């Protein structure tokens, strides 16, 4: 399987497990888990053909570790980034003093006015490493990296969560905590 095919399967999984399981008639449970066998079968019926070994390879090789299996690898889910309502059972915890967010210049005016909003997702996504934020921001053009004073936010009573793949999540980042 070549790199392009793996990337296409990863994008397909993001669509199905984070945003639109109904596209292939897949049912996620309240925690976002899908049955692996059902996913493979329903994906094939929609011209996305892969087997269990390929799915294992895609999940293990995903650079952002977007997906996770349960202990016996019979169920799969996205670690974060959902636009559908799922309960990931994240536990609030203290973040590093600063976190980063990658964006592009065209969004800066809105961010300066309103802060970072979760928009259609369940949370705002923040990175511990600046390089990760640069990679995220570059998906839409020339990246602009914002520094978020997450330690101060936490001390001011704003909750943070750490996803299984190391992405920091919060409900909103008011503009007063952002260094532009």
From TrEMBL:
InterPro entries: Ptrans_KptA/Tpt1, RNA_2'-PTrans_C, RNA_2'-PTrans_KptA, RNA_2'-PTrans_N. It is an enzyme of class 2 (transferase). GO terms for biological process: tRNA splicing, via endonucleolytic cleavage and ligation. Pfam families: PTS_2-RNA. GO terms for molecular function: NAD+ poly-ADP-ribosyltransferase activity; tRNA 2'-phosphotransferase activity. Belongs to the KptA/TPT1 family. Removes the 2'-phosphate from RNA via an intermediate in which the phosphate is ADP-ribosylated by NAD followed by a presumed transesterification to release the RNA and generate ADP-ribose 1''-2''-cyclic phosphate (APPR>P). May function as an ADP-ribosylase. This is Probable RNA 2'-phosphotransferase. It comes from Chitinophaga rupis.
């Amino acid at each position: 399987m070549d790199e392009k095919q793996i990337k296409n399967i990863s994008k397909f999984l993001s669509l199905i497990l984070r945003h639109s399981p109904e596209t292939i008639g897949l049912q996620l449970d309240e925690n976002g888990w899908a049955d692996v066998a059902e996913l493979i079968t329903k994906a094939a019926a929609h011209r996305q053909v892969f087997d269990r070994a390929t799915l294992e390879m895609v999940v293990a090789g995903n650079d952002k570790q977007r997906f996770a299996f349960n202990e016996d690898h019979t169920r799969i889910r996205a670690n974060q980034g959902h636009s559908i309502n799922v309960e990931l059972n994240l536990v609030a915890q203290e973040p590093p003093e600063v976190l980063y967010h990658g964006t592009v210049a065209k969004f800066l005016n809105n961010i300066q006015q309103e802060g970072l909003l979760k928009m259609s997702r369940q949370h705002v996504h923040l990175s511990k490493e600046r390089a990760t934020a640069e990679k995220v921001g570059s998906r839409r053009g020339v990246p602009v990296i914002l520094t978020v004073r997450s330690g101060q936010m936490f001390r001011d009573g704003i909750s943070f969560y750490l996803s299984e793949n190391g992405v920091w999540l919060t409900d909103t980042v008011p503009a007063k905590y952002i260094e532009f």
